[in-house]
């Protein structure tokens, strides 16, 4: 990764965090993850997202945690909550909340549609100005979507690894869910992040079904 490329990579990592019980360990893991993406990538900028899945009560020091993620250059999205808590946007599972979310976050906010959970129909996404959509990690489905829509795709699902993520990238996904491989208790966060970055960047060097350009 010695050659530096301008801009950000055409595909980035997507991390979902839902367990905030051990905040000190979570901060250490995030620091390790962020260090790698900021130091090891061939690109000047990163394009990586952290989705924070919230319950009824905000975790202790949550606002400070959001600030830490953003300081590391990560995009922070909240899952299902329109209130921002200084986040960059929100993930919705109900298209009826889109107008409220857009009004709350403004034109610069990022609003994603979660179609991987089965609660939001894909057709409903086309009727709104979503910034990206989350699909199950099926290359054929992603390729089909990318051929008929300009709305970018995040591929989410269990079993995504450095060895098989290239098919999702080549199908056109601009974000790859790497939560399982990177934040697994048995894995080394930094080493797993390096492996995923290398796999994404190698896949991005080949022809892709869809990009942001």
What shape does the CA trace take? globular
Main β-sheet: number of strands, strand sense, barrel status? Answer: 8 strands, parallel, barrel
Oligomer kind: single chain
**Main sheet strand line-up:** 1-2-3-4-5-6-7-8
Secondary-structure content class: alpha/beta
Poorly predicted regions are 208-213
End-to-end distance: 23 Å
- Assess the beta-strand content as a share of residues: 15-25%
Structure in a nutshell:
The chain is of the alpha/beta class and 213 residues long. 36% of the residues lie in helices and 17% in strands. Helix 1 (23-39) runs parallel beside helix 8 (189-204), helix 5 packs parallel to helix 6 (165-171) and helix 6 (165-171) crosses helix 8.
Structure in words:
The structure is a single chain. With 213 residues, the protein is an alpha/beta fold. Helices cover 36% and strands 17% of the residues. The protein has an eight-stranded parallel beta barrel, surrounded by five helices. Strand 5 (110-114), helix 4 and strand 6 (132-136) form a beta-alpha-beta unit. The two termini are 23 Å apart. The model is unreliable at 208-213 (pLDDT under 50).
Characteristic terms for this protein:
eight-stranded parallel beta barrel; 8 strands; alpha/beta; 8 helices; about 210 residues
Layout of secondary structure:
Layout: E1 12-17, H1 23-39, E2 49-53, H2 62-71, E3 75-79, E4 89-92, H3 98-105, E5 110-114, H4 122-126, E6 132-136, H5 139-148, E7 153-156, H6 165-171, E8 175-177, H7 179-182, H8 189-204
Parallel strand pairs: 1-2, 1-8, 2-3, 3-4, 4-5, 5-6, 6-7, 7-8
Helix pairs in contact: 1-8, 5-6, 6-8
